[in-house]
Amino acid sequence: MHVLITGAAGFIGSSLALKLIARGDQVTGIDNLNDYYPVSLKQDRLKLVQEAEQSGNFAFNKVDFADMGALEAALGNTKFDRIVHLGAQAGVRYSIENPHAYVQANLVGHLNLLEIARHRGVEHMVYASSSSVYGGNSKLPFSVDDRVDHPLSLYAATKKADELMSETYAHLYRLPLTGLRFFTVYGPWGRPDMMMWIFTKAILAGEKIPVFNHGDMYRDFTYIDDIIAGVIACLDNPPRDDGAIKAGGSTKPHALYNIGNHRSEPLLKVVELLEQECGRKAQMEMLPMQPGDVQKTYADIDAIQADLGYQPSTPIAIGVPAFVRWYKDYHEQ
User: Fold this and answer.
1) Could you tell me the residue range of the domain that residue 60 belongs to?
2) CB-based contact 234:174 (threshold 8 Å)
């Protein structure tokens, strides 16, 4: 199978590329290598993938998928069977400061990938949504059957819009699509703008860590290996165009799944695990809730368990130390 991965130099994209290459798939990766966080980390992830490739089964193109002309030119006449669209402008807080970046990457870019999938007759496109779409919902755990009409950030609003555009394409063109609402992904090769990296860096340096809502925060932390297992399960099982109700409520060939750990962990418990693995106490600066943030996330994964047998297996007691060990090794500490 030939798979196109967008955001191939990203955390999830590079991890997925490694798994698909290992099982013998052909992978074409694209990424614009923007400087939202250090490009060197993205390049190091790409190097890891390129070193793992077998018989030339990985190709990479640097391109901005929000530029349709450049995207078409970069892909040329390459034939691919399926797409995993992971590229996006991420970050809840950054969307408050730089809203236009989200319109280009997450709205225009998503539409471009839908058009690529449509016109090239792709069998299935899996795309990244986010647990942020649940916004101000108070019912826990969050279910794909819940209404998600009240986003608390522009980032969340763009991800909800991606789901709506996808539903339209599944209806008009019978294009099989699967949207994945990721819950706080962490692990080796993770993003520097995420809490796990920020806290680890600060604790090791003896600096203060910003703890929002005075520590009364809960997250469904999902280890990268569990995320990749879910993505591949979805990739291999396109929703059928049979009129049946899919996860998320569509009768078109469009499914929505939560991919989480099905546990809502106290933030301060994660801080304790970081302290243990770093070998020093954290200096916590207690702060109020940030605009656009939510107090709790908790994934109901019944749909993806029932349909695809998804079963996350990495608790934070294993995953958090694994991240810190990688972090120290990567920075040679």
Assistant:
1) 2-184+222-262+299-313
2) no
